[in-house]
Amino acid sequence: MPVKNKASSDYGFRAVVYLAIEGRVCSSKEIADQMSIPRDYLIQLCLRLRDAGIVKAHPGKNGGYELAKKPEKISLYDISKALSAEDKQPRHPLSKKRDNGDAVAAVRYTQKVMAKGYALLYSGISVQDIIDSTNAGSDIAAVLQAGLDKSNK
Fold first, then answer.
1. Distances (CA, A) of 51 to 42, 45, 82
2. Is the dihedral of CA 146, 151, 152, 153 positive or negative?
3. How does pLDDT run across 97-148, given as a tens digit for each residue?
4. With the C-alpha atoms ordered 4, 118, 116, 52, is the resulting torsion angle positive or negative?
5. Nearest residue to 11 via CA among 38, 51, 48
6. CA distance 108 to 123
7. Which of 11, 39, 54, 138 is most buried, by CB atoms within 10 Å?
């Protein structure tokens, strides 16, 4: 079963990659139309990306968004982290009162391993890496391995 990104991450990745490829200020309408993102949602996401220092917002009639950093300085993890709701708790958090302490501890440990693995892998893959790999027709496994190699340096 394939793992899917949350809608916010998927749309955020689309917007940032589009801005990287265009290399200029793009209106929210243009980004929304070209990347099939609901415009109102895009604007919300761009506020979070702006707050994280990933995009710059240019208000006004001819305004829009552009990248705040070079694409090689923006990792997939940066985008994901900017758009994640880390403060959001599960509806039914694991209780500390349960008798099955070993199972609860194992689940919490699994969650930490997955979060650390995600951060480790995606911190080493930049937006520029994705663009370059797409243009070169690179194998996805090679992109992931290169990201791991960069993260481990």
1. 14, 10, 8
2. positive
3. 555 667 777 888 888 898 888 888 888 899 999 999 888 888 878 887 887 7
4. negative
5. 38
6. 22
7. 54
